[in-house]
Amino acid sequence: MRISENNLIFDLDGTLFDSAPEILLCLKKALQLNNIDIKDDLNKSIIGPPLKETLKNLVQKKDTVKIDKIIENFIELYDSDYCYKTKLYKGVQETLKILEKKKNLMLITNKRIAPTEKMLKNAKISELFDNYFSVDPNDQSKKDKSTLISKTIKDYKINPKNTAYIGDTMGDFLASKKNNIKFIFAGWGYGKYVKDADLHLNDIREML
User: Fold this and answer.
1) Most buried residue among 10, 129, 182, 200 by CB atoms closer than 10 A?
2) 2 in a structural domain
């Protein structure tokens, strides 16, 4: 099946970057700094939602008061070191370089804007996107992925019928459907298989 949409919006973690190893190592260190044992094992299935949401599901009720401090430690460690070690999936840079000549490429992620910019620039792909945006819980127009996609479509006068979001989670699928855009499932990522995606891919190079 040919991807006919001219506007392609990408997710970051689990779609362009195999970021789980560094995120999990950094999160483990931040939890240890706060003497916290978690309910479940840390694995790549937790990657995707904003960090605060992830921690609310991870820590025991008695430790929820420490969440802000854990996030503070995580940010300090991740932004100064771990985010620079994160690698692109195979084929991402080459694929984006080819797509960029024919399509309008954007990026919308739950990841904070500071490490997002560092990772994109370090991987030498930031210039391949028309723009990139991060969810910001403190800004109502960017409070979650669905709202941010809606804002981007409006601000850039994008035709939803000619737009697709490429992501790896059910959350990405739901955000796409709420905005009436197509959803392309990144089967190499961290989320469970999304049966109702408009297109399923096993390798980003299949987009070509």
Assistant:
1) 10
2) no
Question: Dihedral of the CA atoms 169, 174, 176, 181 (nearest 10)?
Answer: 130
CA separation (Å) from 178 to 47, 100, 174? 21, 26, 6
Q: How many CB atoms lie within 10 A of CB 101?
A: 7
Q: At what angle do helices 170-178 and 145-155 cross, to 10 degrees?
A: 40
Angstrom distance (rounded) from CA 85 to CA 172: 25
Q: Are residues 72 and 122 in the same domain?
A: no
143, 186: one domain: yes
Chain mean position to CA 206: 20
Query: Tens of pLDDT along 46-82?
Result: 888 888 988 998 888 889 999 999 999 999 999 999 9
**79 and 99 co-located in one domain:** no
Domain closes at, from 85, 103, 127: 85
Average pLDDT, the chain: 95
Give the chain's domain count: 2
Going by their DSSP bridges, the two strands 131-134 and 7-10 should be labelled as unpaired
Q: The pTM is what?
A: 0.92
Mark whether 101 and 194 lie in a shared domain.
yes
- Give every strand in the sheet of 199-201, ordered side by side: 131-134, 104-109, 7-10, 163-167, 182-186, 199-201
Contact partners, residue 29, CB within 8 Å, separation at least 6: 73, 77
